[in-house]
Amino acid sequence: MTARGVRVHLRDTDPQRIRTAASLGAGTDAEPDGPVDLAVVAVPPAHVARVVADVQRLGLARGCIDVASVKGGPRRELRELGGDPVAYLGSHPMSGREQNGPLAATADLFEGRPWVLTPTPETDTEVLNLALELIALCGAVPVVMDADAHDRAVALVSHTPQLLSSMIAARLESADETAVRLCGQGIRDVTRIAASDPDMWVEILAANPGPVADVLAAVAGDLDEAVRALRALDSADEEKRGGGAAGIEDVLRRGNAGRARVPGKHGQAPAVYRTVAVLISDRPGELARIFADAGAAGVNIEDVRIEHATGQQAGHVQLMVEPGAASALESALRDRGWSLRRL
Ligand SMILES: NC(=O)c1ccc[n+]([C@@H]2O[C@H](COP(=O)([O-])OP(=O)(O)OC[C@H]3O[C@@H](n4cnc5c(N)ncnc54)[C@H](O)[C@@H]3O)[C@@H](O)[C@H]2O)c1
Ligand SMILES: O=C(O)C(=O)C[C@]1(C(=O)O)C=C[C@@H](O)C=C1
Predict the structure, then answer these.
(1) With a 6 A CB cut-off, is 336 part of the ligand 2 pocket?
(2) Angle at CA 120, nearest 5°, toward 79 and 216?
(3) d(CA 334, CA 256)
(4) I want to staple 160 with a disulfide (CB 3.0 to 4.6 A). Which of 203, 215, 234, 321 is the partner?
(5) Which ligand has the shortest distance to the CA of 204?
(6) pTM for this structure?
(7) Domains and CATH numbers, the chain
(8) What is the DSSP code (8-state) at residue 89?
(9) Tell me, what's the ipTM?
(10) 74 in contact with ligand 1, CB cutoff 6 A
C-alpha cells in the first residue's frame, strides 16, 4: 500500500516488529492525527474480534477489515463482544508464506491471488468499497463468499493440506540420515508449508475443526484403500496383485484430475510450460547472470525452481518458459557458456 502512495500507520503489540516493518518501508510508526479510512487487522485468528472491537471502541478507523484465515468465528465473537458488525468486513487473501513476521513480508505477495470478502446484507457499502480499493491496489482478485462457505472451502484447499504436509514431514524427524540426504524436489514440494508456525496453525485449526476433520476423514478413507492396495500388490496371488495395481492407479488418476483443476498463475488454467534445466555453481550473482542472459534472448521466464545437488557446491535451476520459447532459450544459454541438463 505504501508503494502505491497510501499512507500506512503500523501498530503491533510488539514494538520491535513495528520498527522492523517501518525500516523495510511498510509504513510509519507515527500515530495518525485522527481516524484512518480503513484499519487492516492482521493478528492471529483468536485475537481478531478483540482487536476489531478495540479499533471501533477507540474510534481509530472509519471501517475495519481483518485478514485471518478463518471467517465464521471472528464475526460471531465480535457480536459477543458488542462490536459493530456494520463497519467490519471479514476478508482473507489467499496467499501467504510458511514464515511469519515482517522479515518474511513481500510487497507483491497478493498479486494475482484471490482475496475473499465476506460481506453480509448489513455491511456498510463504504467499507466494502474501501476493501475493494485496497485489494485492487494490491493487484489481487476479489472473491465474495459467505463466511461459513469460505471456512469449508479453505478446510479443503488450505487447512487439510497444511496438516498433511506436516504429517509427511514428521516422518522425517527420526528417519535415518542416509534416507534424509536423498530428499529431492518431490518431498520439498510436499513439505514446504510444514515449516509454518505451529502456534498460528493451532489457532487456525481450532477455529475450523469440523470442516477440516471432514476432509481429513475422507483422506483417511483413501489412505486405508491405498494401504490395502499396496498389501495386495505384495501378495503371491496374481489376481490380488491385479486388484492392488488397479486400486493404486485409481488414486493416482484421481490425483491427476484434481491437480488439473488447480488454477495457475493469476488464477488462469495451469499453463503447460517447458522446463530448461541449467547447471549453476553456488556463487554470488549466478542467478542474476542467468536471468539477464534469458532476458537478453528475449525469453520471459514464467516460473523458476532451484534444485540443490546433495553435498555439492552446485545445483540446477529450472526455468519454466512457454513451449515455443524453449529451444531459443536453450541455444542462447549454450552460446553464453551455460551447461544444460535434459529432463
Ligand atoms: N501467513 C500467511 O500465510 C497468512 C495468509 C493469509 C492470512 N493470514 C492471516 O494473517 C494473520 C496474521 O498472520 P501472519 O502470518 O501475518 O502472522 P505474523 O506473526 O507475521 O503477524 C501477526 C502479528 O500480530 C501481532 N499481534 C498479536 N496479537 C496482537 C494484538 N492483540 N494487537 C496487535 N498486534 C498483535 C503480533 O505481534 C504479530 O506481529 C492471521 O490471522 C493469519 O491467519 C496469514
Ligand atoms: O503458501 C503458504 O506458505 C501459505 O501460507 C499459503 C496459505 C494457503 O494455504 O494457501 C496458508 C494460509 C493462509 O490463510 C493463506 C494462504
Answers:
(1) no
(2) 80
(3) 34
(4) 215
(5) 1
(6) 0.83
(7) 15-145 (3.40.50.720), 152-259 (1.10.3660.10), 274-341 (3.30.70.260)
(8) E
(9) 0.97
(10) no
